[in-house]
Design a protein that fits this description.
Elements lengths: L2 E4 L38 H21 L4 H4 L3 H15 L6 H22 L10 E8 L6 E8 L11 E7 L8 H8 L11 E6 L10 H16 L2 E11 L1 H12 L6 E5 L6 H6 L9 H6 L18 E5 L6 H12 L5 E5 L8 H17 L7 E6 L6 E2 L2 E6 L6 E9 L2 E7 L1 E8 L12 E5 L2 E5 L8 E8 L2 E4 L28 E5 L7 H22 L5 E3 L5 H6 L1 E4 L7 H6 L5 E4 L2 E4 L2 E4 L3 E9 L2 E8 L23 E5 L11 E6 L9
Parallel strand pairs: 1-9, 4-5, 4-6, 6-7, 8-9, 14-16, 20-21, 20-22, 22-27
Antiparallel strand pairs: 2-3, 3-5, 10-13, 11-12, 12-15, 13-14, 15-18, 16-17, 18-19, 23-24, 24-25, 26-27, 26-28, 28-29
């Protein structure tokens, strides 16, 4: 059962971006249209003038950046976003209409104005209300990325009052270049502008449903906003429609303890059922693809919404109503009754009466604010990537990509009850002032039926307790995985391959002669493709260095993506003995599996032997390819922790060749 709210009055519908569904035309991996599509070369002087205007803006940025005032230097990204937006549209043929050229001129004019203001030691946009576009430098690839803001008239730049903030995820837009995004954010406040509320519009690095690098973009944009504006940490929500609705579901279940509310509309909430229902696609996934669907299949994480008040929306006639319907079923199985506001007689749009009802509910939830220290807590995870909810952190799992679950209850002044599944390590943490236990007594922890004694809170009412499951049961302290457990899967070092591209990374190019001409050609082609598609799909420039130029600073600060084999790549030769792959006697081997090295190449990730807190990746970028660009629900990991590629099958729109073997490493990074 859910609380379906069907409003009967009919008015004009709020316009939203439409979604293209090509059905069978987009279901053939052998015939894949490009995303984004090629741009046009507009005629006229406007286009011809852009290079000189770009050159002029670059000179002004260089002059502004020479300032010795750190406050001025910190604002360079707010100008750089305008240069990069237009420069990339020129360089990569991404003017999709003649009107885009007009937009480019407007952006360059704004960039010039901001640069001149910085040169004069001023930055008036930092105290501007209404629509504002800002920028930050991403940790992933050190590129500048834009985001939009709506600063309410109630915001006082000189007063201490903190404001509610809503994150709004945009819908799918295959022509949503930086030019179009920034232009839109300078003119359109969006679907919702609640009173006394800052609205953050992240770019999400284009049109990837805010997954992977798009997910990191949201978190970075939020952090940048919070560093520049006074945001109430107890009143931050996530909202979106269409593709943005899908993003909202994902952020709500993965980071449930961060938001006071979630308001997803339309979109999708998982992969297989949506593709069958919406795309009419016949699926034939591998076993590891099915397992990796758990990453973004929100139905598998539904219980986490016990900590995030949720108001879903669908048009009554919208095919994407399926997203909320299937979440309703998953939540019902957890005993949660979903509030589902339905726009009467409405297809893919937000009904104005529904909008009023949604705003009424979110305003009420915002007054209550986010619960920061619940006495009862339940959470699930399938990966240590998302391992925390409030005061409970999962530090070890029995096996990744199988459901782990924790139920925690403060049952008395000095007692805590825990029930776990597929969990081998826990950290329980209450910040100073928040521990609900008696400071004069130890805490009795009853976990999975066994009772153990833990130290009591400190005098400042903080409490931290680490629990590990050993062969003889749970104990206070200890090491996850027991003795010899130093190298193990842990938060942000748990795989699969795609996770390496959610933090700073560096491509390392081979300069030596490859073991085989065929493998060398494949490496060169895949490396070139990786650089092109990182920019196409994640709107950045992948940093790259030769194998002889990598520094200790690079090793300390980035996941290293090594291309080639130990003969062609000197850095790979330096560390290959510490990896679960070897080349010898004409074979490449992973564990007990061996293949002829002249026709096979490994792709994998593992902790870097030179810095075990960072990844090393072999011969791969993000693992979904062109076929997945056609529908955001397909944009999920295609490979686990490692795979062997048979090069006799050429790379295609789904795979880098024929995958003859693939698997996950175990919890200690060993070959299964």
């Amino acid at each position: 059962m859910s609380r379906k709210i069907l409003l009967t009055a009919l008015f004009l519908l709020l316009p939203v971006s439409t979604v293209r569904a090509d059905g069978p035309r987009d279901n053939d991996p052998k015939s894949v249209r490009p995303v984004p599509r090629p741009g046009v070369r507009p005629a006229g002087s406007g286009f011809v003038q852009l290079p000189d205007k770009l050159k002029d803006l670059r000179a002004r940025i260089t002059r502004a950046a020479s300032s010795k005032n750190p406050a001025i230097s910190a604002l360079i990204p707010d100008v750089e976003i305008y240069y990069r937006a237009v420069n990339d549209a020129m360089a990569f043929n991404e003017f999709f209409s003649a009107n885009d050229v007009k937009k480019a001129h407007e952006l360059l004019a704004t960039g010039v104005a901001r640069a001149d203001q910085l040169i004069a030691g001023r930055a008036p946009w930092t105290r501007q209300k209404g629509l504002v576009v800002r920028g930050f430098i991403s940790k992933l690839d050190r590129t500048v990325q834009p985001y939009g803001l709506v600063i309410p008239e109630s915001y006082d730049f000189d007063a201490p009052r903190r404001h509610r903030l809503d994150i709004w995820f945009h819908g799918r837009g295959e022509t949503l270049s930086e030019v179009n995004f920034i232009h839109q954010r300078q003119r359109n406040a969006g679907a919702y502008t609640p009173s006394k509320t800052i609205v953050l519009h992240p770019y999400g690095r284009y049109s990837n449903a805010f997954k992977f690098a798009g997910e990191v973009d949201v978190l970075e944009a939020l952090a940048d906003t919070r560093s520049r504006y006074r945001v109430d940490s107890r009143r931050i929500s996530v909202r979106g429609f269409s593709m943005g609705g899908a993003a909202c579901w994902q952020f709500a279940v993965h980071y449930a303890d961060r938001w006071f509310a979630a308001n997803p509309g339309a979109g999708f909430s998982e992969t297989p059922e949506f593709l069958k229902f919406f795309q009419k696609e016949t699926l034939n996934p591998t076993w590891f693809e099915k397992r990796l669907w758990h990453w973004y299949d929100c139905t598998d994480w539904a219980v986490n919404l016990a900590h995030c008040p949720t108001v879903a929306y669908s048009g009554e006639l919208d095919i994407q109503k399926q997203a909320a319907d299937i979440m309703e079923q998953a939540l019902s199985e957890e005993g949660i009754d979903l509030v589902h506001v339905i726009g009467p007689g409405t297809k893919h749009a937000i009904h104005p009466d529904s909008k009023k009802e949604i705003e009424r509910r979110l305003t009420s939830i915002a007054r209550a604010g986010r619960d920061t220290n619940p006495r009862h807590l339940v959470m699930t995870t399938w990966t240590l990537k998302y391992n925390r909810c409030h005061w409970v952190t999962v530090e070890g799992m029995g096996e990744h990509w199988k459901a782990a679950r924790v139920t925690a209850d403060v049952t008395g002044r000095s007692q805590l009850k825990l029930v776990t599944k597929n969990v081998t390590g826990l950290k329980l943490s209450f910040s100073p002032g928040y521990a609900p236990f008696d400071v004069r007594s130890p805490v009795t922890v009853v976990i999975d039926g066994a009772s153990i004694e833990a130290p009591g809170p400190l005098s400042d009412r903080s409490w931290n307790c680490k629990l590990t499951r050993q062969q003889d049961g749970w104990r206070v302290g200890g090491r996850v995985g027991g003795r010899g457990g130093k190298l193990r899967k842990r938060h942000n070092l748990q795989g699969p391959i795609d996770d390496a591209f959610m933090d700073s990374f560096l491509f390392v190019r081979p300069n030596g002669k490859p073991m085989h001409e065929k493998t060398g050609q494949w490496v060169e082609s895949e490396l070139q493709r990786a650089r092109i598609h990182w920019r196409k799909q994640f709107r950045g420039y992948a940093r790259i260095k030769d194998d002889t130029q990598v520094t200790d600073k690079d090793i300390a600060g980035a996941n290293l993506v090594l291309w080639g084999d130990p003969q062609s790549n000197k850095l790979l030769a330096r560390l290959v003995d510490g990896l679960p792959v070897s080349w010898s006697d004409g074979k490449v081997s992973v564990g007990e599996k061996s293949y002829a090295d002249g026709g096979h190449m490994p792709v994998m990730m593992n902790p870097n032997p030179l810095n075990p807190r960072r990844y090393v990746v072999l011969n791969s970028s993000f693992t979904y390819r062109e076929y997945a660009y056609l529908n955001n629900a397909r944009q999920v990991p295609m490979l686990p922790d490692w795979a062997i590629v048979d090069l006799s099958t050429p790379p295609g729109s789904q795979w880098p060749g024929r995958i003859v073997e693939a698997n996950f490493f175990d919890e200690k990074w060993g070959v299964k």
